[in-house]
Amino acid sequence: MAEDKLTIGGREFASRLFLGTAGYPNQQVFLDALDASGAEIVTVSIRRVDLEGGAEGLLELLSARRRWLLPNTAGCATVKDAVLTAQLAREALETNWIKLELIGDRETLYPDVEQLLRAAEQLVADGFTVLPYCTDDPIVCRRLADVGCAAVMPLGAPIGTGLGILNPYNIETICARSEVPVVLDAGIGTASDAALAMELGCAAVLLNTAVSKSTDPVRMAAAMRHGVEGGRLARLAGRIPKRLRAEASSPELGLIGT
Amino acid sequence: MTGDARMMKVNGKPRDRAAGPLLALLAEEGVAPDARGVAVAVNGAVVPRARWGGHALAEGDEIEIVKVLQGG
Question: Are B71 and A50 within 8 A, CB to CB?
């Protein structure tokens, strides 16, 4: 079978699964889950140095495994904070890639679309490869692509809920119309959700909690890998149309007793 | 001289310290000049690592010192 690479911002990736690095029981479980997932793109956050956190050595471990780091602006609620966080991330990690998150509300964690568009425009002009976390709205996704985003990352369901893809119709519509890769971000709960995202036409899936907070993160990471691969193959293979009536698959002739 | 407007702010917290080299503040914060995954902004503008050595902080400056952490 021909190679089926994911291309974003001029870079090629063999894996279509992006993995978040937060919330694992410990670092060894994270590393084993990362290996089991096959993910090449991993997300990280940018926080003040006085915040306690066990990130010591995270960068060394990730670069030893040759992963592509995608810093985020998670939690930012203003264009100013998101843009500065992106610029700090670029300096800290020597990458111009940014997962742009602009949260409109701490309770729902829904994206603030108006501010997201403004921040995306500024960051693109500043030379960033912008991957915005956005609502599952085809028009919003088109606007984000129009201002130069390298991909769009609509949510399947609110962050951390594990509710899966609440509006498959919207995701399919976005995929059918998007000129840039569509990465399903947020809401994935289990492997079938990841498979569905790929069947609907997504180019990739980004997830974190579904793996890190599962009972067995390493096994779930493997399940996600297979879910994404299975869904991608099914998409490329072309599913049969849905029918309302039964149709026998075995030959009807030669049946005994007729 | 004791007015808050003249106080430096380091990672959102007021800090009563005199103007001086950025590297001295970084040392106080336990950030080595070659620390990986760290970045600094002063008054909303990133100070590239190559310029840490020559950067002097002034009264009233707002400094953000960040690092890479786990994230989703």
Answer: no
pLDDT (tens digit, 9 = 90+) per residue, A72-122?
999 999 999 999 999 999 999 999 999 999 999 999 999 999 999 999 999
Structure tokens belonging to residue A30: 């994270």
Q: Which residues of A are catalytic?
A: 99
A248 at interface of B, judged by CB pairs closer than 8 A: no
- pLDDT tens across A14-37, in order? 999 999 999 999 999 999 999 999
List residues of B whose CB lies inside 8 A of any A CB. 11-12, 29-31, 36-41, 44, 46, 48-49, 64-72
CB contact under 8 A, B72 and A22: yes
Q: Which residues of B touch A46 (CB under 8 A)?
A: 39, 66-69, 71
Whether pTM exceeds 0.95:
no
Q: For residue A56, what pLDDT band results from cuts at 50, 70 and 90?
A: low
Supply the ipTM of this predicted assembly: 0.91
Using a CB–CB cutoff of 8 Å, tell me whether A245 touches chain B. Answer: no
Which residues of B fall within a CB distance of 8 Å from A22?
70-72
- Give the strand pairing for B8-10 and B13-15: antiparallel
- A89 has a chain B CB within 8 A of its CB: yes
